[in-house]
Amino acid sequence: MGCAQWTHPAWQDRQPNPRERLRGYANWCNAVEGNTTFYATPTAKTVESWARQTAPDFRFVLKLPRAVTHERRLRDAEPELREFLAAVEPLGPRLHALWVQLPASFGPTDLGALWTLLRGLPDGYRTAVEVRHPAFFEDPRSRERLELLLGRAGAEWLPFDTTVLFAERAGSPAELDAWSKKPRLPRRTHALTDHPIVRYIGRDDRGATVAGWRPWVTTVAGWLREGRSPTIFIHTPDNAESLSLARLFHAEVVAEVPGLDPLPEPAPTGPMTLF
What we know:
Number of strands: 9
Shape: globular
Largest sheet: 6 strands, parallel
Strand order of the largest sheet: 1-2-3-4-5-6
CATH architecture: Alpha-Beta Barrel
Number of domains: 1
Strand content: 5-15%
Helix content: 25-40%
CATH superfamily: Protein of unknown function UPF0759
Structural class: alpha/beta
Radius of gyration: 18 Å
Order of helices and strands: EHEHEHHEHEHHEEHEHHEH
């Protein structure tokens, strides 16, 4: 369970050491999306710090640099990819998956480039691919081609579920901003591997967010019973409550699958007005 980031102004009293915010976050969740790696490849020193602040079973799902996915569109990007893989090597087993987030313009005619990238990765890397082109959701033949490619490469299709966000008109600046940036695509719940990854975004209203994830609680519980090991990331438009919501989602899954490993137990803190 995790969030889209490991630091937020609303979480400051849960992350008392400003130099080790990740360590504070890891007392609440055991996975995190690595969105910052999309904008810049971190230094080895930075990645070593991430490793020191987290347990060996903590999961990083790191987004490939935009130079690879958006600027070069997976073509002739070997130097940038090698630099990235070398930089994140200190994470060791914490690097749960490489997240290949593709632009909305990356469609069925580009699948050859995706196949070349996935087959060219060194052994030992798990991959999760997020597509946003409507054809992969609306055209059965395009969907089948993508699933076949991912299956042959041993990669997962990473869904970003925005259906609750777009279910009603945006009612706040944060929701309006999310509407302008997030893809509007159908919900997808089919896993291709033993390590499915889901990104879910709700709304400002906590009740709507929780009600909207009920199908995912059922799906995740089913995956666990099948022996899969899913990773779920909870978002809201401003993410202020996502830390506590991630723990609530986990608690709802535990109610369906007793005996599931618990999340870390954070040290007691004073009450937070936003939670």
